[in-house]
Amino acid sequence: MRKLTLAIAVIAPMLGHAASAEDTLKIGYIDPLSGGGASVGEGGLKTFQYLADELNAKGGILGHKIEIVPLDNKTNPQESLVQAQKAIDAGVHYITQGNGSSVGAALSDFVTKNNTRNPGKEVLYFNYAAVDPSLTNEKCSYWHFRWDASSDIKMEALTNYMKDTASIKKVYLINQDYSFGQSVRSDARKMLGAKRPDIQIVGDELHPLLKVTDFSPYIAKIKASGADSVVTGNWGQDFALLLKAAADAGLKVNWYTYYAGGAGGPTAVKQTGLDHQVFQITEGFANSGNKTAMDYEKAFRAKVNLSLWYPRAVNEMRMFKAAAEKANSIDPVKVAAALEDLKFEVLDGGNGIMRKDDHQFLQPIYISSFGKLTENEPFDEENTGWGWHLVSKVDTAQAMVPTTCKMARP
């Protein structure tokens, strides 16, 4: 009897641990936590940890506590696959990633092959920021869902705004030399050419991703070109250092960007002194005017001490919960089916839908400018005293482009 009691005493904690592990829903966060993209990756990690805490405080997802598992990929596609396998080996069935479309393409392919080879052990890839259009076109996968607007959707909206700005005469394109940056340049050329054929493209530059430390030679070229406007998809240190060099050189042009609001971007914009001459296209922003979103922003900043760079991450996690509840399961196969054509009210207001044809989330998007704040705009960025101001809102119906996806379904 004494031996039996001892055995129970030893086994009981082990059983309790196993049950606890089974009750945990792990999400592998695969993004840069070191190297040139670390500041952006760390911000994303804090965002997802905040969202996990928020859901856990309300019972998690179907009673499962959410755990964010951070995995450093150094913005490298091959390293991302190593981290994805590590996550799967640790029992992760959901991964999320955003920084780098080359990484996104590698992960999408990896997850698709993994699920073909391992039926019953499927993994879903939730993409919150990798926006190369190919991911929901020729490279589309049933196992990949994207919550950010693709770069061509964003460029469609951005060029619709630019075409009505008569002062734009000469545009310079500067982008990172990988799939996303290449899509920004090609979409800008095509769409500006169709909508404003009178606009001259006076420069078209690609540079290495997260490797340039001094952008002054590039700024000198922009200055010499006579450009009045620059279009760039640069993010992270590549945007901050680009604008810092512009400030040092006294370059005074308008900037049309995707990611000026990321880490270091607002500080660099303030240094240029370009009051409301830097524009950004996003799915939401701090001073959007939507009370629910602005209340959320206030609570987020108070706890995380960061701006909410990724309203789409809020939409992603909330839709994950909604899909699991619709399926009454956290099985990735059932969650994937429930996500298709799922309609959802987004954080900043308005309806979005996860398009079944290609797993691209369609939602309202905003163009905002950065500069001095009005009395109805409470949020500044990076303690600059400047913040984002609404320029234009594009409703969901106008914020979509066709897809060429021919999805293979399980």
From TrEMBL:
Domain Leucine-binding protein: 24-368
Alphabetical list of SUPFAM superfamilies matching this protein: Periplasmic binding protein-like I
Alphabetical keyword list: Amino-acid transport, Signal, Transport
One Pfam family, short name: Peripla_BP_6
Key word Signal present: yes
Signal peptide interval: 1-21
Family: Belongs to the leucine-binding protein family.
Name this protein carries in UniProt: Branched-chain amino acid ABC transporter substrate-binding protein
